[in-house]
Amino acid sequence: MADPAGPMASNASLRKPRLDDSVRRHVGMASYYARRFAGRKMADGTRMRPESDNAASRILPLGSRALVTNLSNGRSAVVTIRDRGPFAKGRIIDLSPSTAQRLGIIEIGVARVEVIPLSVPQPDGSVRTDIAMAGRSASDPQRSAF
Predict the structure, then answer these.
(1) CA 84, CA 141: separation in Å to the nearest integer?
(2) 66-78, pLDDT tens digit by residue?
(3) Which among 100, 20, 35, 33 is positioned nearest to 68, based on CA atoms?
(4) pTM (two decimals)
(5) CATH number of the domain located at residue range(s) 24-135 in this protein
């Protein structure tokens, strides 16, 4: 049976993931903003500051705060989602250069990370802060990997 929304509907969902307003953890690759993006406007209208805790996510709502942990060295930092991206295949978050430095990512360019949402704005204007999952380890089978 043909898709009632048409063939483009299923292809569009592959290119643009839905926003995830849950507090599920995600595991994948992180990269960081090139210095040339300093001062440019981000999706929330603020300017990208290399020394800030800015981050970009394609799935977490703008304004979300998340704990990002480099899985190769255990270093963590809290970031605020202010922009959309990354747009490179397989990457789940772009970090500011200072955050990438703290996590030990600058030297290698990309790293496998775990992203645990700490506070997530909801469509109704409330903010979800269910951090019960934060105590689970990265090897937990219930984590999300993409």
Answers:
(1) 27
(2) 999 999 999 999 9
(3) 100
(4) 0.76
(5) 2.40.40.10
